Each structure stands twice: as C-alpha cells, then as structure tokens.
Amino acid sequence: MTHGFNHVISESSKDEWLTPPHIIRALGQFDLDPCAPVNRPWEMASRHYTVDDDGLRQPWEGRVWCNPPYGAETFKWMNRCAEHGNAIGLIFARTETKGFHAEIWAKADAVFFFKGRLAFHHVDGTKAASANAPSCLIAYGQNNVAAIASSGLAGVLVKPIRATEDAASGCALSA
Ligand SMILES: C[S@@+](CC[C@H](N)C(=O)[O-])C[C@H]1O[C@@H](n2cnc3c(N)ncnc32)[C@H](O)[C@@H]1O
Prior knowledge:
By secondary structure, the protein is α/β, with parallel strands linked by helices. The protein is built from 5 helices and 9 strands; from the N terminus they run H-H-E-E-E-H-E-H-E-E-E-E-H-E. Strand 3, helix 3 (74-84) and strand 4 form a beta-alpha-beta unit. The protein is globular. The site of S-adenosylmethionine has 20 residues, from loops.
C-alpha cells in the first residue's frame, strides 16, 4: 500500500474513532495496538500497526489492545484476539448479533459493559460527541479479566456461562 494515499483515506474515514485515553491507561500497559491511527495524539501501546501495515496480516505479540475498525470488520479482529488469547477489545455492545455470539459469547473470558456512553476522540485529540451505541470491553485471558476488574472503570463485568452450543432459542441472530 502507498502510505500517503491510504493515510488520507483512513484519516477521513468513519473508522478513526480513538479510545478515550483514560480507558487505556486504566487497563495498564499494552504491548501492541494492531489497529492504530497513522497519526495519533497519544500512544495506545508500546508498538502499533496501522492500516498501512494491515495489522491482521502481521504477527501479534504480548498483551494486545484492540479497538478495531467498525462494521463487518470488527469480528475479524475479535476472532484474532480470541486466537491470540491475550487481548482486550473495545467494541459496540451489539450483543444479539451473529458476530457477537461467534466471537464474544462463545470465546471471551469476560465482557465489561460501560456505565453510560463513551465519547471517542478524533485523531487531533479532540473529543467527539457521545457515541450512538453502548460500548463494551472484551477480555481474552484471565490477566485481562483481572485488569478490567481492578481498573476502576464504571460498569459491570460479566463472565459468560455458556449454554449448550446447539440449543435452539427460536430467536433470529442479527447480522
Ligand atoms: C476505531 S479506530 C481505533 C484506533 C485505536 N486502536 C484506539 O484504540 O484509539 C480503528 C483504527 O483501525 C485502523 N485500521 C483500519 N484498518 C486497519 C488495518 N487493516 N490494519 C491496521 N489498522 C487499521 C484505522 O485507521 C483506525 O485508526
């Protein structure tokens, strides 16, 4: 990929919604953010991959912070987090969707539901208006469950008790 062109596309896209920095700080030091902005007002982790690297195609090492691109892409990143086994994700709490069931309810060690709506940040560091959906943290690895539990962030931490996988609920899953 050419850096300049993709840089312009990515920075003008709807995907550039940065995590409020106090949330990352409350969760402790991360080794890698595999989906970081090219230009960032603060560091999310010790190392970063950007759209120019395509973080999904790179090796992941250490403790990962993952507030991924939105939409259909989100659950590819959560799938990678689950495989990696040492990560905290930040996604919208669309708990009824196919992707949430496949990658979160079926695989995560815990889910943390924030009290209230988050206000994300722009790449210049300024704060945007409150998000139009609730958000949650996804813990893969018991170290990350513990980090959320001791973070002081306001919300509720839920540990899934998995029902029989093939049990039919009679309810349709959202796309
Ligand atoms: C919702 S933002 C979150 C940014 C940052 N991870 C954070 O927590 O503040 C998603 C980021 O993913 C980046 N991105 C999109 N596609 C990517 C890819 N294939 N590889 C790496 N980063 C990507 C976008 O440029 C954007 O900065």
